[in-house]
Amino acid sequence: MKKYFLMVAMAALILGGCTLPTKQQPAEPQQPTAPVIVEPGTPETSGQPPVETVPQPPKVQTINWSASVQPMVAKMLQADGVQAGSVLLLDSVKNSTNGSLPVSKATAALHDALATNNKFQVVPDSQLATAKQSLGLSVDDSLGSRSKAIGLARYVNAQYVLYSTVTGEVKAPMLKMQLMTVPSGEIVWSGNGAVQH
């Protein structure tokens, strides 16, 4: 029985990692060390890594919205069945490409292209903003759907809506435009063309 007890105690000590206490020696007092003085010297260029050149960012392609929009607006103004003097609601251009495009500039180019036409009276931005607020829409709402655009056009008593979308690859986008009558939603003219860079 004593042997068994000693073996268990020995095994417990070994497994527990216990060691027998040893006599500790008193620590020696540390001697103060003198500060190290570093003197400036000439830098070594051989130990420095080579200077890396920063790669040039990709060139941002500028889009000539005016050149993209003008020919299509000219064709639209020649379309048959459009009554001169009609009120036109110009919907914001939508971006349906696979990237980001400054479509607000496209909308501004459409406004500029239609500013001097003698066929349509374009609904002013201030009237459009007031109408959107009256209908509970955000002033920045791009209307998103044809039905929403036609509903807003009815509210401002417009006879036509110009719905425009930029589609395709962002590096080579296409501009699609549709002129619709407000009462029926019928498309009376449509056109598309490549966006000019």
UniProtKB/TrEMBL annotation:
Family annotation (InterPro entries): LpoB
GO cellular component, one term: periplasmic side of cell outer membrane
Low complexity bias (residue ranges): 23-35
Record membrane topology: Lipid-anchor
Primary localization class, coarse: membrane
Keyword Signal set for record: yes
Any one GO biological process: regulation of cell shape
Pfam families: LpoB (PF13036)
GO molecular function: enzyme regulator activity
Region named Disordered: 23-57
Localization annotation: Cell outer membrane
PROSITE patterns: PROKAR_LIPOPROTEIN
Keywords assigned: Cell outer membrane, Cell shape, Lipoprotein, Membrane, Palmitate, Peptidoglycan synthesis, Signal
NCBIfam families: lp
Complexes and interactors: Interacts with PBP1b.
Protein purpose: Regulator of peptidoglycan synthesis that is essential for the function of penicillin-binding protein 1B (PBP1b).
Stated family: Belongs to the LpoB family.
Protein name (database record): Penicillin-binding protein activator LpoB
Species per Swiss-Prot/TrEMBL record: Ewingella americana
